[in-house]
Amino acid sequence: MTLAAWIYPASKPDAVLGRLNYFQFWLAVILSVTAAACLTVHLIPNHLRRAVGFRFTAVLMGLVVAAIIGEIIAGLLPVHHQMDNPWYLAAGGGTSDSVELPFERPPHLKWEGMSRGDLALLSGDADPYARRITFETDMEGFRNSRDISQADLITIGDSFAEAGNVMEAESFTALAGRQLGSSARNLGRAGYTAATELIVLKKYGLKCQPKVVVWQIAEANDLAEMQIYTNWVAAGRPRYFDIKPKSARAEAWRSRSPTYKLFSLARQATPRAWPLGAMFRGQDGVEYPVRFLSMPSVEPPVRGHPAWPAFSEALLEGAVLCRTNGICLIVLLIPTKSRVLAPHSRLTDLAQAAAQRAEGDSLGVVLKEFCNAHDIEFVDATGALLEQAKAGQLGYLPYDTHLSPEGHRVVADLIQRTLAGP
Fold first, then answer.
1. How do residues 15-32 score in pLDDT, each as one tens digit?
2. Which domain, by its residues, includes 223?
3. What is the pTM of this model?
4. Is residue 72 domain-shared with residue 100, that is, in the same domain?
């Protein structure tokens, strides 16, 4: 029976040996320890069996009772905040309800901890490249460690602008502000898209009286987020994160549970290949395992995408608004990670097959045409990030879809050069 507990369960992700989930793992451990204890008692002399058996039972029962008490405490303690970086929206505690927007951030939120990459979080893995960061919001819930009422430069966008996986001073908003010698305010927020970013520009951006607005667009998910937003509006704007409290409590339990931590250690010792993965050789000769969420060739073409009309309408309205108020607008495209790193990496078979498929119209191509047609300054970071990758520098974090500090530096340089002119 003990052997069956280890062998019988079917193969599955996020499991010890690729087969045992949390409950199956501990069932197998208990059965294995019990079998070992029974065998040990059977092998010792008859006159000692009763005493030794009693001691084994007492120790085992004591451990079980202690584990149960520990699990009860871990489950009942209050959830103060999310256990992962708060910009990961599913973790709980980093968002608040809103009237106009799907969600906002609480003002003056402060969180310190390890910023686990979203592609590690997605698979339940540890992130060997996670760093300790501080995440703070200002009086209106945006990622600024101090309250700023006026700023010459503001950025709007999604998680690439909010940059919750790096220190605030490493974000392209902060770097560009320092390079330009200008005051800067970050109005980016994870999970937003063109329509919600337009609301941010109207409600929060214009009152900062900026001279420059950098509107960051993400090739990776902006159109998908636009479709989600459109569906949310069509559904009558229900509460956006109804399932979040349960998710937050489960995440809190996992972070505190002694048995889950031991299970996680055993699970991390099981080698698992990320299907869309690669090895990237840095300029120092070190190879870094990198993960991709998707490949450009498997994404639907932008022309004909159901979200493009509403997406482009929001951009155009924002451009007119900036022009009317004498504000210089820069539309900045951040390419998807695989577009930049895949050409300079050794890919897994699945990633190689996906990369070789024909690609439809990309967001970069269509967005450039759109901006040119409407006299909007367009900056595509793809070329600069590709040059960085060719030189052996990781512009994206290995276990994350977002930019590394080095990638943010490249983007900040682009902004500075664009504003400096020819």
1. 666 667 777 777 777 777
2. 89-239+274-420
3. 0.82
4. no
